[in-house]
Amino acid sequence: MSLSNYTRVSEFVIVGFPSLQPEYFVLVAWFFFFLYVTTAVGNLLLVVMFTLERSLHEPMYIVMVSFATVALPKLIARYWWNDGSLGFHTCFFQMHMIHYFGSLNSLILLTMALDRYLAICFPLRYPTMMTNQTMAGLTLFCWGIAHIFPGISTISFTLMPFCGPNKIIHAFCDTMSLKSLVCVDTSRQYSLAFASAMFILYVPLAFIIFSYICIVISVLRMAKGQGRMKTFSTCATQGCIISIYYIPRFFVYVTPFIPNLTMTPDKRIATTIFYSLFPPVINPFIYCLRTKEIKQIFRPQKKENKSTVCR
Question: Which residue intervals define the domain G-protein coupled receptors family 1 profile in the entry (predicted)?
């Protein structure tokens, strides 16, 4: 049939979890609302703290990116008010920002790995190599380069005809979900999008693995056992976040290309939400609340309170 026999799509509808029963909609909405508030409040408090406290203006504290603001409001509305509709161009804007934040998070993890690598392997040169200006330049570079690969995919899919079903079996608009709604062959565009995603995700991962190997070698050469444990503790925590971010994402992306490996829509959505939302939720606790600088902010206040009580 020719494309003129179809009705063109003017809006899309976010379905979310297709097997979820209606009686659980409100519970799921509250769950995602709690995640959103926790992520937003935690990162906002950190931004305010970094702005007010000059001692925290160091390279590792410059950027905190939240994926939740783009993905969760519409998902919450879908389960709270049964409002999952998105305009045609709004859906593509969300798709672009979803993939943009995914790419940006990958590049930020690369920047943090570079920061740790230089601090541990080149401690004497670190203060001159990784200054605030250097980290600001790297941050701006990440912000810019992260738009390129998602932009190519977004533009190519925007120009394709959507003239059939408009229900997106996912928590948000993304390339994999929209691919099934296009009424022409998308193998070339999807292969390009897949290759771009693999490049922006796993080229940084290759350097991250390399940096951690170098860090482990340097740590094993330390004479003091206490220094080893402190460094290993910091790197192990960051390594856990990196594993959560990359490993599940890899299985979601490669499942369609493996013949005997299948993933139900509910499992795919749950896995995507897990690796996308869990790191931003715990970022304030993992990367900041355990650091020496923030602990020192509260110690004088505690001592002052004690002296006041003694008086």
Answer: 42-287
Domain count, the chain: 1
Flag whether 233 is in a domain.
yes
The torsion angles phi and psi of 96, rounded to 5 degrees, stand at -60, -45
Q: Is residue 310 in a domain?
A: no
Report if residue 303 sits inside a domain.
no
pLDDT beneath 50: ranges in the chain = 1-3, 57-63, 302-311
For the residues of 245-309, what is the DSSP string, one character each? HHHHHHHHHHGGGSTT----HHHHHHHHHHHHHHHHHHHIIIIITTSHHHHHHHHHHHHHHHHHH
The pLDDT tens digits for 122-170 are 888 888 888 878 877 888 888 888 888 888 888 888 888 887 788 999 9
Give the CATH number, domain containing residue 177: 1.20.1070.10
Q: What is the pTM of this model?
A: 0.80
